[in-house]
Amino acid sequence: MKKQYLLAPGPTPVPPRVLQAMSLPIIHHRAPAYKAVFAEVREGLKYLFQTREEVLVFASSGTGAMEGTVANMFSPGDKVVTVNGGKFGERWGQIAQGYGLETIVIDVPWGSAVDPGQIADILAREGDVRGVLVQASETSTGVKHPVKEIADIVRGYDQTILVVDAITGVGVFELPMDEWGLDVVVTGSQKALMLPPGLAFAAVSQKAWGFNRQATLPRYYFDFAKELKNALKGQNAYTPAVSLIIGLREVLAMIKEETLAGVFARHERLANATRAGVQALGLELFAPASPSNAVTAVKAPAGVDGQDVVKVLRDDYGVTIAGGQDQAKGKIFRLAHLGYVGEFDVLTGLTALEMALMDLGYEVGERSGVRAAQMILRAGN
Amino acid sequence: MKKQYLLAPGPTPVPPRVLQAMSLPIIHHRAPAYKAVFAEVREGLKYLFQTREEVLVFASSGTGAMEGTVANMFSPGDKVVTVNGGKFGERWGQIAQGYGLETIVIDVPWGSAVDPGQIADILAREGDVRGVLVQASETSTGVKHPVKEIADIVRGYDQTILVVDAITGVGVFELPMDEWGLDVVVTGSQKALMLPPGLAFAAVSQKAWGFNRQATLPRYYFDFAKELKNALKGQNAYTPAVSLIIGLREVLAMIKEETLAGVFARHERLANATRAGVQALGLELFAPASPSNAVTAVKAPAGVDGQDVVKVLRDDYGVTIAGGQDQAKGKIFRLAHLGYVGEFDVLTGLTALEMALMDLGYEVGERSGVRAAQMILRAGN
User: Is the separation of the CB atoms in B271 and B296 below 8 Å?
Assistant: First the structure.
């Protein structure tokens, strides 16, 4: 028996009470029992997204809601700005280009956040940008982008909306949709929402609904207006992923019990401990200036391949973390701390990491990442 | 306590061993443990679809794979034929029109199957039809369309493909993709596949892959070529619905144990018993000439509203069946017998139906739908 630990940035561990709720016999999605669940879910999602707007729910992975947002907000030839500083920023560009939009791509070095000033300059210079598409948390690099500052800029333009992929942002750190004036906020089920993959979400502002009414790109399965119409009647346009919705009710109840503020504080504490732990081992953060509380990307030390760290942790210790993707492959590894995680998940990750680094010939010596993390995670802190 | 019975045409009951498999702790979709599951699933799907081709898997409901098929096979302005004889046939038309295709719609009275001769005439007359889009089983009316006969016609046209929505066909009755020459076959998880909703499937012939290479409609999440490329490497393009895939492995193992022939024979027997049962009660089938083995649509008798039958069964007896949709609302009700169902599910449905009809003032008298079904379901038959 090799006991398994999941510390990757999605899927994240599913709480036992959620697994239990989802393993009850299936119910019909047009039956009153389902409608009661969905009504509760709709309310819980508004709390989670900090919005009065409806949060649309789709049976898909997060990418589906990203594509749906492009198809529902824009028309062929519309000009949008995307931030290419990681795999998911790149994805906004690919989707937009695939749908025939004109994209202005801001290239940002992987590991850095976008400078809001660059966005301000482009909006002022071009005059006809329809959308700014960013990540709240770029999962591939562990960077947190300055969404609030970007929102402050975009709000000044009636003809421009801000679209935020917050797939590893919602439920991790503060992203109050209505207060900040975010126009479309997208997330997925398998991150801070502590569910298996298979649900995607899009919250849509009134400004964005105005865009939707003018948008001519084709859409059917991800038809936001149709989904809204159905949601207001308490149902879904197409057969929903019933068991995941049942799990979602449970998860949203857990978040409400902990309170959003409590959830954010827990993630911050775990992220701080992780960062302190890896730095105490002499390792460097990949995103030191603007790290996300969802996942900590760490540079592999000289002489060690980041993929080997992932492999040893998985094969020899039963701990699943994530490696680098694309241009960061081999150069970094990523320890996640979002969702159903606590102090001892972070400490498990660090103890395992110390052993794996020793196995790979890295000189750990007297350094202790665990101790550095403990000092942050001790009761009372 | 009111014990609940689910006899609707999707979602269908999920077998306990599948619920159990899905409630195990989540695994990471890039880990070897997942790859082993997915490899098994890919093989099992080929057996289920009776094909040597790859069966693509999406996290979405069936409609997503229908839209994906249109977006991956055609280009703006392409001419396609759709069969409008129910809600789902209508859906092909809506999707095709939404994507700017030219549609030739064959209107068929609800409850009837399409005449293949009409399709032959249109293909010959037009000369440039790119696709024929049909349902194997039109769930809204309980009709089985003559897919084999249509395939025999379409095969004669190099520049035309046959797209089959087999969402309540695959795993219910014979639909051998390769033998009949079907080009795209779509299904969903919550029907004969005995899983919760949230997975959609598309099997694609070599002829259809040729179409895919020429198709210019925009797609990203449902990008068939990208999904194929990933599948051949044993993975998914985007985060898969891991827990449903784990359940799918279990379900495919169950189907293999029963054998496809056994699965089809069971569905036929249960469908025959249901039809005999309702007719013995003096009720009329809505699709007498070409009934589907997935679901039996029954005309509500004079003086009884079909929606009341559904309501009494659900509220007073805990039995969930389906009513009519759109133009058939109130006129019919639908008893499903697909997926994880056996003799006593059908008999439960009929005993409950008899009581509900009595409650609604229908003169049941000495008639017994149960006895008629028993005569078909007795051991040895």
Answer: yes
The fold adopted by the segment(s) A5-10+259-377 is: Aspartate Aminotransferase, domain 1 (3.90.1150)
Contact B191, B294 (CB under 8 A): yes
ipTM of model: 0.89
Domain positions in chain A: 5-10+259-377, 16-258
Contacts of A10 in chain B (CB under 8 A): 239
Q: Is the Cβ of A188 closer than 8 Å to some Cβ of chain B?
A: yes
Tell me the nearest-neighbour CA distance from A201 into chain B, angstroms.
13
Radius of gyration for chain A, computed over Cα atoms and rounded to the nearest angstrom: 21
- Upstream peptide bond of B16 is cis (omega within 30 degrees of 0): no
3 state DSSP class of B319:
strand
Domains A5-10+259-377 and A16-258 share a fold: no
Residue identified by tokens 């925009």 is: B218
Please give the structure tokens belonging to residue A353. 């990491």
Find chain A residues with C-beta within 8 A of B4's C-beta.
25, 27
Per-residue model confidence (pLDDT) at position A245: 98
Rounded to whole angstroms, what are the CA distances from A241 to A21, A189, A237, B63, B197?
Answer: 14, 11, 12, 13, 5
The CATH number of B16-258 is which of 1.20.210.10, 3.40.640.10, 3.40.30.10, 3.40.50.300? 3.40.640.10
Q: How confident is the model at residue B172 (pLDDT cuts 50, 70, 90)?
A: very high
Within 27-66 of A, beta carbons closer than 8 Å to B belong to 27-31, 58-64, 66
